[in-house]
């Protein structure tokens, strides 16, 4: 059975707290596992979440600040120790290749050959995902060090209309051929097209946006996604700090979601300057700008993908 959900392995920002581990997010998608920004302690958090190194097929690092990458050595060595046989694609900013190399070989261990390095550069870079059931693109963001966000897209599909098929006498193997070729010859000799018997089923989309100021890259990544996983390091009262250090407030993240037509807004990466009793304020500030579903995450949360959109992009 295919699974599509987000496992939150950590949700703090620069400094972990008693309640929040450094970053770590595992997006499970039809047998693939995309591990975003494994911070310190991610390996142990995966154990608590009930997942293992064998579940990881991609490692995607947004940038090389420690809270987003210090878990790389443990994950890499666990992949090796557990004898993971499938390829694991490692995506990271090309400008940080030296940091990646240090993390990748941080200590002595029996190395693995399954990790394929995929450095990204430029403003926008599509990634070759082979036969994976999704497309992946990296987009440059605005942070004091080079940083990228990621957008995963499932290609659009087609929902077949049983009534239209029956009316044209298309059944059995002819249906599969119609899906593959786009047209078939019906038993009565008529040519039947896919457009006559099916409607577009929009593919699901997820965006992952960590440390950044507001910029075109944020808006492009968020455009029309079903789930936006986005940093909300600060409350609006600290917007000046957010701009200075290259971060977003909860309200800014929510305005992006509202403007982009996002369905589910997932807020994370909270500064340690705030106390537990401040958490409702993040959700409240976001709700003023965004009237869709909002989740303020906690470590080890599991967040399911929203139900598919209907044809034509409706909810």
TrEMBL record:
<feature type="binding site">
    <location>
        <position position="63"/>
    </location>
    <ligand>
        <name>Zn(2+) 1</name>
    </ligand>
</feature>
<keyword id="KW-0378">Hydrolase</keyword>
<keyword id="KW-0540">Nuclease</keyword>
<feature type="binding site">
    <location>
        <position position="65"/>
    </location>
    <ligand>
        <name>Zn(2+) 1</name>
    </ligand>
</feature>
<comment type="subunit">
    <text>Homodimer.</text>
</comment>
<protein>
    <recommendedName>
        <fullName>Ribonuclease Z</fullName>
        <ecNumber>3.1.26.11</ecNumber>
    </recommendedName>
</protein>
<feature type="binding site">
    <location>
        <position position="269"/>
    </location>
    <ligand>
        <name>Zn(2+) 2</name>
    </ligand>
</feature>
<feature type="binding site">
    <location>
        <position position="68"/>
    </location>
    <ligand>
        <name>Zn(2+) 2</name>
    </ligand>
</feature>
<keyword id="KW-0479">Metal-binding</keyword>
<dbReference type="InterPro" id="IPR036866">
    <property type="entry name" value="RibonucZ/Hydroxyglut_hydro"/>
</dbReference>
<comment type="function">
    <text>Zinc phosphodiesterase, which displays some tRNA 3'-processing endonuclease activity. Probably involved in tRNA maturation, by removing a 3'-trailer from precursor tRNA.</text>
</comment>
<feature type="binding site">
    <location>
        <position position="211"/>
    </location>
    <ligand>
        <name>Zn(2+) 1</name>
    </ligand>
</feature>
<feature type="active site" description="Proton acceptor">
    <location>
        <position position="67"/>
    </location>
</feature>
<feature type="binding site">
    <location>
        <position position="67"/>
    </location>
    <ligand>
        <name>Zn(2+) 2</name>
    </ligand>
</feature>
<keyword id="KW-0819">tRNA processing</keyword>
<comment type="similarity">
    <text>Belongs to the RNase Z family.</text>
</comment>
<dbReference type="Pfam" id="PF12706">
    <property type="entry name" value="Lactamase_B_2"/>
</dbReference>
<feature type="binding site">
    <location>
        <position position="143"/>
    </location>
    <ligand>
        <name>Zn(2+) 1</name>
    </ligand>
</feature>
<keyword id="KW-0255">Endonuclease</keyword>
<feature type="binding site">
    <location>
        <position position="211"/>
    </location>
    <ligand>
        <name>Zn(2+) 2</name>
    </ligand>
</feature>
<dbReference type="InterPro" id="IPR013471">
    <property type="entry name" value="RNase_Z/BN"/>
</dbReference>
<feature type="domain" description="Metallo-beta-lactamase">
    <location>
        <begin position="21"/>
        <end position="218"/>
    </location>
</feature>
<dbReference type="InterPro" id="IPR001279">
    <property type="entry name" value="Metallo-B-lactamas"/>
</dbReference>
<dbReference type="Pfam" id="PF00753">
    <property type="entry name" value="Lactamase_B"/>
</dbReference>
<keyword id="KW-0862">Zinc</keyword>
